[in-house]
Design a protein that fits this description.
heterodimer, A: alpha/beta, Rossmann fold, 2 domains, 5-stranded parallel sheet, B: 185 residues, alpha+beta, Endonuclease, Chain A, 8-stranded mixed sheet, 8 strands, globular
């Protein structure tokens, strides 16, 4: 054979057709076949930077509808071209939430803070220290809570005190002696979720003070349906409500969860008091592609980005392949066939299934040493995935 | 840093741990990747290869096997079981030394993987000293499972040395006949 899969299919700077931003972070830049939706989300985010000054959005859809890709794309888009309305440099934090049946909002807070990272907050504190004539005064401006301010001051100092201050900010209960050492009067979680959100907002305020804008991208929030206990569900609801509230103008969030309709969403996320705070315009449904035109656009855009078209064109001409630059590595009829299969069942007409079919068709062609994917291969692979 | 709850060291019957989880948890399985240089019928083990094949066929699980070209009769016997299964793709790669087993499930958090020293053989389960890591797709385990899946299902399968012996031949529904070029089902 003497050539690689990548060269065989004229792939442009990648090994396979599979798109997965978690495995290949550079795949975050792709968003195919959904221009109107992308423009709508961009507009909503741009507006959100004016009021309430950070985005607060929820994205939901069926399994495989592209939630993870959407979250990663939006984060990529923000970092690489923030709207003018964004007053700082976006600092995006990705988090795949993990929830057990008894998980309280403390666990959410802990995961948010760990995803943000101690080193990041320390860097921000150091940047504030360098630019401030009076660091302590500036820290006091970040929060109304003297305990949080004190934890920030300790955190900049380094050593064990800084580490314990960070643990305190993440909601870990410290021993009385440790509380005394970092000069706080109680644990962050002693009273309720309000203090935890206040600590997170203080981080957001700190980010803003040094020219950054903190935005979390939280995936897998359908895991909240695992929560069975009323108290636990209540604490998650309160945490979400406080983040959604207009009083939070420093910590943005885009939450993704699997649900075909809002009714299937974890209840604590979509109660009326939360929806009214983030506004229904910021509830974004990812529909399956289903319509033939949508599927075609998706596949064409995907191939346009993944294939080196100069090389493909050269190959098509040299080998007299029955394909075209826009449809390669599919033959013209196999391309239409793939789209037909993908449209047979609206529920299965998802980006994930289409990408998987393209990948497996290409592997089948590679196995058979075929230069293009023909009807036989599509007929062999597509029913396994779309059937 | 590894999260001890989701990445566990297994020092006994490593492959059986994987199979046990696969058989005993009731979640829908999306796909299965079995990478093992040597495979036998697992006769005498708690779950045999025939049991596994039966589960794959019954639940219509697309399964991707990468192993070495069978030379010994025990390998050929095992391959004969898998060859009967329309849901199993078999590739032979004589360079494969890795032992990786991945289940992707619905929900994704139910996916899991095992990698270590254990082959998919009865001897590996019953007699050999093996060590492995079970990774659950929760928390910090999830990206590891995803990367292992990407490696096994994409990168390993497209290696020049990974020669296709048998493709998946199944169709999910009987009503699925090949679409004609005019698009009718």
């Amino acid at each position: 054979m003497g050539t690689t899969f990548k060269d065989w299919f004229c792939l442009s700077g990648r090994e396979t057709f599979t798109i997965d931003p978690k495995v290949n972070p550079s795949d975050s830049r792709f968003y195919f076949g959904r221009d109107p939706l992308r423009d709508r989300m961009r507009k909503q985010i741009s507006r959100a930077f004016i009021d309430p000054q950070v985005p607060k959005m929820m994205i939901y859809g069926a399994y495989g509808s592209g939630k993870t890709q959407t979250l990663h794309y939006l984060a990529y888009d923000l970092v690489n071209g923030a709207p003018k309305s964004c007053k700082g440099k976006p600092h995006v934090v990705h988090l795949d939430i993990e929830v057990q049946s008894k998980s309280m909002a403390e666990q959410w807070h802990l995961q948010m803070m760990e995803a943000l990272r101690m080193a990041t907050v320390q860097e921000w504190l150091q940047a504030l220290f360098v630019k401030s004539a009076n660091f302590e005064q500036e820290v006091d401006k970040l929060t109304d809570d003297p305990n949080i301010a004190m934890a920030f001051k300790q955190l900049r100092g380094g050593g064990d005190l800084a580490f314990n201050a960070w643990r305190w900010l993440t909601g870990v209960k410290l021993a009385p002696k440790e509380l005394v050492e970092i000069k706080v009067t109680r644990s962050l979680v002693d009273i309720g979720v309000g203090d935890m959100v206040a600590a997170l907002q203080a981080c957001g305020n700190l980010a803003r003070a040094v020219g950054a804008c903190l935005i979390f991208f939280i995936d897998e929030m359908e895991e909240l349906i695992n929560i069975k206990q009323g108290d636990a569900a209540g604490s998650w609801h309160q945490y979400t409500r406080k983040l959604a509230d207009n009083s939070n103008s420093s910590v943005g969030f885009v939450i993704g969860f699997k649900a075909v309709t809002v009714d299937e969403a974890p209840k604590m996320l979509v109660r009326e008091d939360i929806l009214s705070r983030i506004s229904r315009a910021n509830m974004v449904e990812l529909e399956t592609l289903s319509a033939p035109a949508n599927v075609k656009t998706f596949v064409e855009e995907m191939l346009a980005h993944l294939v080196d078209h100069k090389a493909a064109d050269k190959l098509i001409k040299a080998k007299k392949l029955s394909s075209s630059e826009s449809k390669y590595p599919f033959s013209a009829t196999a391309f239409d066939l793939l789209c037909d299969y993908a449209c047979q069942d609206a529920i299965k007409s998802t980006p994930r299934n289409i990408i998987r079919t393209i990948t497996d068709c290409a592997i089948a062609a590679w196995d058979a040493q075929k230069r293009i994917i023909d009807d036989d291969i599509v007929n062999e692979i597509a029913p396994i995935i779309f059937g | 840093m590894a999260d001890g709850r989701y990445i566990r060291l297994v020092t006994e019957k490593t492959v059986e741990h994987f199979l046990e989880r696969l058989f005993l948890r009731g979640m829908p399985i999306r796909s299965l990747c079995l990478v093992s240089p040597f495979i036998n019928t697992l006769e005498g083990a708690r779950f045999t290869l025939a049991d596994l094949s039966e589960k794959i066929a019954r639940e219509q699980i697309p399964t991707y096997v990468v192993t070495r070209t069978p030379v010994e009769p025990y390998q050929q016997e095992a391959m004969a079981i898998l060859e009967e299964n329309d849901w199993v793709e078999i590739r032979y790669n004589d360079s494969v030394h890795a032992k990786v087993y991945i289940t992707t499930a619905l929900p994704e958090s139910e996916s899991f993987a095992l990698f270590g020293s254990g082959n998919l053989t009865g001897r590996s389960i019953a007699a050999s000293i093996e060590v492995g890591m079970i990774v659950l797709a929760h928390g910090q385990g999830r990206p590891l499972v995803e990367e292992l899946y990407y490696w096994a299902n994409n990168r390993l399968r497209i290696l020049e040395e990974s020669k296709l012996h048998q493709p998946i031949r199944a169709r999910r529904k009987e009503k699925w006949v090949q679409l004609s070029k005019t698009g009718s089902v």
